[in-house]
Amino acid sequence: MPNSAWLRKFQRQILAWYGGAARDLPWRADRDPYRVWISEIMLQQTQVATVRAYFERFSAAFPTVTDLAAADEAEVLRLWEGLGYYRRARQLHAAAQVIADEHRGKFPREFAAILALPGVGRYTAGAICSIAYDQPAPILEANTIRLHARLLAYREDPTKTAGQRLLWQFAEHILPTEDVSSFNQALMELGSEICTPRNPQCGVCPVATLCQAKRENAVAEIPVPKKKMQYEDRTEVAIIVRRKKEVLLRQCGADERWAGLWDFPRFQVASEAELLSGELASQLEERTGLSAAIGSRLTTIKHGVTKYRITLHCHEAEGMTGRLRKDATAPLVWAAVDKLADFALSTTGRKIAQLLAK
């Protein structure tokens, strides 16, 4: 670990830099732990530029944690729509209910109590404690992992157990005795804006002289690159079943990709040729109770979800007959085309809805 002289210089220089370089972000308007929490959950695996508008809409709709706790999950998901990783929204809602029920609607201050909330891990709990309450809690996320690995010239995989142990120890070691809120935000800001994954701006970095990777001319090599994701191709079909000016929607079940969101009946197929067989029509009838032939193609959407590259063929249903079956685990409803904006739809479901609206 660096010595005390290094620490004093590092803390002084990074705080001075942050004082003039901090971005004007809506969640930095105050230290409200509720707003800090929402922003940290939204920022997980999502860029700041994307989160800004979502945060403003979400916090306007649910200005307090009790407002969020009292909301319907469907409304929470509708405001989250397009942000992805919907489990975050469901856990956010569940955690708000815990705060309302077990903490009388007041956001907890203790690290252990915050860590116990659904969807909150060590980093998020530390971010809330330090940013909102100025408590000496270390943080470690994607930007600071990269920053710290370079400061230490750590050449092993920082996501492995040994690397995580070292970097958490370092994150705690460098904490100042005061203004931890600004300090931890400065670390994330530096990692996000200056110590970037590619082409880091070492020439304007406020702590470049303290960086061991810079001394060793190894900034480009640290941290070691992640293994490339091996993507799997999938072909799926969405069926648009019409009844006059209404279309059929299905709410995704708890164990499905978009749990809690609404989508058009969707099926995986082995190949596009399977569309021509009667198997897809049989699956539609089994799932919905409605018998129909698979008709003309409305559109094709290519998109990615986690490790999958999906080609989604969207087809009209023709000659629909039968009665809609009841399914408590994945409800089915007829929705007016001009009211689809009221439903929390999957990303591709929203694209199909916009096409139908035209």
UniProtKB/TrEMBL annotation:
Q: Which residues form the HhH-GPD domain?
A: 42-193
GO annotation terms (biological process): base-excision repair; mismatch repair
Instruction: Give any GO molecular function from the UniProt entry.
Output: oxidized purine DNA binding
Q: What is its EC number?
A: 3.2.2.31
Catalytic activity annotation: Hydrolyzes free adenine bases from 7,8-dihydro-8-oxoguanine:adenine mismatched double-stranded DNA, leaving an apurinic site
UniProt keyword list: 4Fe-4S, DNA damage, DNA repair, Glycosidase, Hydrolase, Iron, Iron-sulfur, Metal-binding
> What does the record's cofactor remark say about binding?
Binds 1 [4Fe-4S] cluster.
Domain of life here?
Answer: Bacteria
Q: Which InterPro entries match?
A: A/G_AdeGlyc_MutY, DNA_glycosylase, Endonuclease-III-like_CS2, Endonuclease3_FeS-loop_motif, HhH-GPD_domain, HhH_base_excis_C, HhH_motif, MIG/MutY
The function of this protein is:
Adenine glycosylase active on G-A mispairs. MutY also corrects error-prone DNA synthesis past GO lesions which are due to the oxidatively damaged form of guanine: 7,8-dihydro-8-oxoguanine (8-oxo-dGTP).
- Family the UniProt entry places it in: Belongs to the Nth/MutY family.
- Protein name listed in UniProt: Adenine DNA glycosylase
